[in-house]
UniProtKB/TrEMBL annotation:
The lineage of its organism: Eukaryota, Viridiplantae, Streptophyta, Embryophyta, Tracheophyta. Belongs to the PPR family. P subfamily. Coiled coil: none annotated. PROSITE patterns: PPR. PPR repeats lie at residues 140-174, 175-209, 210-244, 280-314, 315-349, 350-384, 385-419. It comes from Zizania palustris. One of its GO terms (biological process) is mitochondrial gene expression. This is Pentatricopeptide repeat-containing protein. One of its GO terms (molecular function) is mRNA binding.
């Protein structure tokens, strides 16, 4: 049954209840009965009923919805309603299941399990899980990994372990993702002994660990300020044949950065490069982002230079982290060097990389260079987006370059970006202040024409 039929009947049923938005929706459906708008109108209106109606079952019965009810529409309604009102969404699913023509799938139940867990409605969660087992539907490991994490966030470690142990009874395999979820819960609550036992159990069961398995424990040790214990753990796991998919030192640097131990991470990274051991790009990017956020741009630049000379190949994420930070620190020449290095590496620069350099040039009073670089951006086939135009206009206004700001406003409108009123007002006020009244008037006329007045 099409979604248009559902919304028409929603219009009939809800018209009695006085929702003002329904007539427009129904009229749209009559014009476009198979459009996406009709479908999502049905999802929106039904999910609103599910979330807000106290007498939900009675209202649904009065709507005389089509039978069989569309399975995909039911899933979208549950997903839309469950985050805010998981119990109401569960009532909606129960109402659907009472109809002989509706056959629920595992997706319908999975859309409810996680919202119930986040709302700490664990009794309802296990009731649904039992229903799934009763009708032979599989339980997904990803869903129960999230449920275990929800128990951990509620400081219910014993219950999280119980969920883990109960999964085989529900036919849900204990995958690496499930083990990682329980490891995270145990480490977050300081139960390292239990985490080690769980790792040994992984070995016995033949479940292969991944990077998240090792980084969870290493991050926990580093957060506790125990770098030696983290290193000893990695060595112990290596002796047992449990080698991480990335080098242990990279995991240690990641753990120190996430724990906020930036000085220790810097010292460890320096020691690695001096010994000729390069961090992988993901680890370097994480460290560089932490350094730039802390204002230690000089060290980040020196570390990048040293690591690049030893063979590190930066990716586009490296330049995305480093270039804006270097430009913001006023090191314009270094920002240009990084920009052209990115081009030589074959990366296509996106507007925010250009914007960082243009803004730094304007702040330094080098407007001619900023305008030239902006022209190069367009001639090289990299069209500016709205934020770049707005930033350039604002910097021109701050620097007293009101005529140039007006020109870029016109260019912005021609590119299809309508400037907002505050941007126009700043330019017009500046033009009047410097005696350019005719140009200010033309800017006002441009604003009116762009706004359709």
């Amino acid at each position: 049954m099409s979604a248009s039929v559902v919304v028409r009947r929603l219009g009939i049923g809800l018209g009695v209840r006085g929702l003002a938005t329904l007539p427009d929706a129904v009229q749209t459906l009559e014009q476009h009965p198979t459009s996406k708008d009709a479908y999502f109108a049905a999802v929106h209106h039904l999910s609103t009923i599910v979330r807000r109606d106290f007498y939900l079952e009675r209202t649904l019965n009065r709507l005389h919805l089509p039978s069989p009810f569309p399975s995909d529409l039911a899933l979208r309604v549950i997903r839309a309603a469950a985050p805010a009102e998981p119990l109401h969404a569960a009532r909606f699913l129960a109402w659907l299941r009472a109809k002989p023509s509706f056959s629920p799938s595992a997706d319908h139940f999975d859309a409810l399990l996680l919202p119930l867990a986040r709302a700490r409605l664990f009794s309802h969660l296990w009731s649904l899980a039992s229903d799934m087992r009763g009708i032979g539907l599989p339980l997904l490991p990803s869903t129960f990994s999230a449920v275990i994490s929800s128990y951990g966030h509620s400081r219910l470690t014993d219950q999280a372990v119980e969920v883990f142990n109960r999964l085989p009874r529900f036919g849900c395999p204990q995958t690496t993702q499930v083990y990682n979820a329980l490891l995270d819960v145990l480490c977050a609550n300081g139960n390292f002994a239990g985490a080690y036992k769980l790792l040994r159990r992984m070995a016995r069961k033949g479940v292969a660990p991944d990077r998240a398995t090792f980084s969870t424990l290493v991050d926990a040790w580093c957060a506790a300020g125990k770098l030696r214990e983290a290193q000893a753990f990695l060595d112990d796991m290596a002796e047992r044949g449990f080698r991480p998919p990335v080098r242990g030192r990279d995991l240690l640097v990641d753990g120190l950065v996430r724990a906020g131990s930036l000085e220790e991470a810097k010292a460890f990274a320096l020691r690695m490069t001096k010994e000729g051991i390069l961090p992988d790009v993901a680890t370097f990017n994480l460290l560089a982002e932490a350094l730039c956020s802390a204002g230690d741009v000089e060290f980040a630049v020196a570390l990048l230079s040293d690591a690049s000379s030893r063979g590190l190949c930066p990716d586009i994420s490296t330049y995305k982290v480093m270039l804006p930070a270097v430009a913001k620190a006023g090191r314009i020449d270094e920002a240009f060097r990084l920009f052209y290095a990115a081009l030589e590496d074959g990366h296509r620069p996106f507007p925010s990389l250009y914007a960082a350099i243009i803004k730094a040039l304007c702040k330094a009073g080098r407007f001619a260079d900023a305008f030239a670089f902006f022209s190069d951006m367009k001639s090289n086939g990299h069209p500016p987006n709205r934020p770049v135009y707005v930033m350039l206009v604002k910097m021109c206004v701050r620097g007293g370059r009101f005529v140039e700001a007006a020109n870029y406003l016109v260019e912005m409108g021609e590119a299809g970006f309508t400037p907002r009123a505050p941007t126009f007002n700043a330019v017009v006020d500046g033009l009047r202040h410097c005696g350019k009244h005719d140009l200010a008037q033309r800017m006002e006329q441009l604003e009116m024409s762009l706004n359709g007045n």
